[in-house]
Write a structure and sequence with these properties.
The structure is a homodimer.
Chain A lengths: L34 E4 L2 E6 L6 E3 L2 E2 L1 H23 L13 E10 L9 E11 L2 E10 L2 E12 L9
Chain lengths: ~160, ~160
């Protein structure tokens, strides 16, 4: 049994930016990925649902890509928020990132039925552009490696025309 | 209104391999991506569901990554099936691929509410390893580019221990 992490960055996204299918707390149908510091790394734990299979017994790669994606933007938000002098949950709104690019190497078939742990290593490339390298483990087995280039959300996401 | 494509490769996957959350016809909760030839390219059309948003008005990147992923494996299956002397729907079982790696560049925010078209260009790297470059369009706007390295499903996917 995995304990639910407390005080994830996604718990504090402004309401307008909390609708993401992957990690938005207000998206009822979504995955609700939640990301926290773990030492100098970041951590997102998620247990795939029964339907999230590639084949019976193995996790769907698109779900793993989604986990790496939101873990990446969440990790970048955590890191920039800290750089800005804040702590998650101190009442200030964290920055919101979007994904510029996503890479996933599927190292091994990922067994279904156990929690997946995404562990991120964060690097600042530019004040508005961060790289997050992620390893996804099923129990102690490394199943996928990912890289996300996350950028502070541009104004183009504000226009819906 | 987009007409449903006929005779997609996923319609003919063997039953044991038709459970993928992205493209398995037997996975009731899944996306049911379906891929066909379109001239020398491949095509998958999908209209995201209301919940598949990054923000209201924009499509979730993980859904786009999932589309590129299954479009890639489906495109590789179509191409190898043809190389093997078959046509989709001729009664023979197509090969089944898995994703070795996935890359997505998010070129523009992807508007929600219109069908997405994934258009693939296929290249054989090795008889069991194919590269599929994909462009994802929302109407006439290129929103994402992807690359999938797809490999014929290895035996490790047959073991559920």
């Amino acid at each position: 049994m995995v304990e639910k992490v407390k005080n994830a960055i996604q718990d504090h996204y402004p309401e307008d930016f909390a609708w993401c299918y992957g990690c938005g707390r207000l998206n009822e149908a979504g995955h609700h990925f939640r990301t926290v510091w773990q030492g100098e790394n970041t951590l997102t734990i998620y247990t795939p649902k029964p339907e999230h299979m590639a084949l019976p017994g193995f996790v769907y790669g698109g779900l793993i890509a989604s986990l790496i994606d939101c873990h990446g933007t969440g990790s970048a938000a955590i890191a920039l928020h800290q750089k800005n002098g804040h702590e998650v949950g101190d009442g200030s709104e964290p920055p919101r990132f979007v994904t510029a690019s996503l890479k996933v190497d599927f190292v091994k078939p990922t067994p279904h039925g156990v929690p997946l742990k995404a562990i991120g290593t964060i690097q600042e490339i530019h004040p508005k552009k961060w790289k997050v390298d992620t390893e996804v483990y099923a129990e102690d087995t490394l199943c996928a490696r990912g890289e996300v280039i996350a950028v502070v959300m541009p104004n183009t996401f504000m226009k819906k025309d």
